[in-house]
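Methods — Computational structure assignment.
A single polypeptide chain was analysed. Its primary sequence is given first, followed by the predicted tertiary structure written as structure tokens.
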Amino acid sequence: MLTDVAPATKPRQSRRIATEAAIVEAFGRLMERGSVHDAGVNALIKEAGVGKKQIYDYFGGLGGVADAWVRRTGIWPRLSDMLDEPLETFHQRPPMERLRMLVRTYASSLRAHPAVATIMAGEFAGPPELRDAVTAVRIRIWEEYERLFIGQRSEDKELLAIAMTMLSAVSYVGMRAKFEPNFFGFDLHDDLAWERVVGMLDHVMGRYQTGVDAATSHQSDSAD
């Protein structure tokens, strides 16, 4: 009996693998084109040349397709893999230094993968199905930030506030670069202009860090 079932099962598995790959690749093409208004399930069906049932049977919906796209294409690498030093060294740095590194890493990732900005914009302007996809991708991105940094929130509410502000600012700038690159006179498609804008955010964090260091030094002097 096994010899009769196996040959029939193998082609079905191969067809499913090929169909899943076609769906994921089609989703990626939709994201690259950047039209969040045309990135729903129906658009994906047309782009991939598959049936709606396959999308839900294989992925559970558009959110599952988006999550598979992120995982399979590596379009959003783990932040820990993008750091230029071992995690042990990173965790030994003061929290503000870690935040500055993470903000720059986040900015670099958005710059390298503008299709991610299409998903992010879909939370505000896309069809309802795309919002599920946004949630799936955002969870994948933010769980890494939480692991590397946001755990400090219970210890320093001010640090959490500036972290959320800076990461939100980078998200906005990343979406502007994708859809409307003229930002206060800066052409975000230009490498130098992009670096200047990201450098401004880093400057703000640097001023905050200087103030924290000064306050800490003053407290130490007072204690002495």
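Note: The mean pLDDT is 80.
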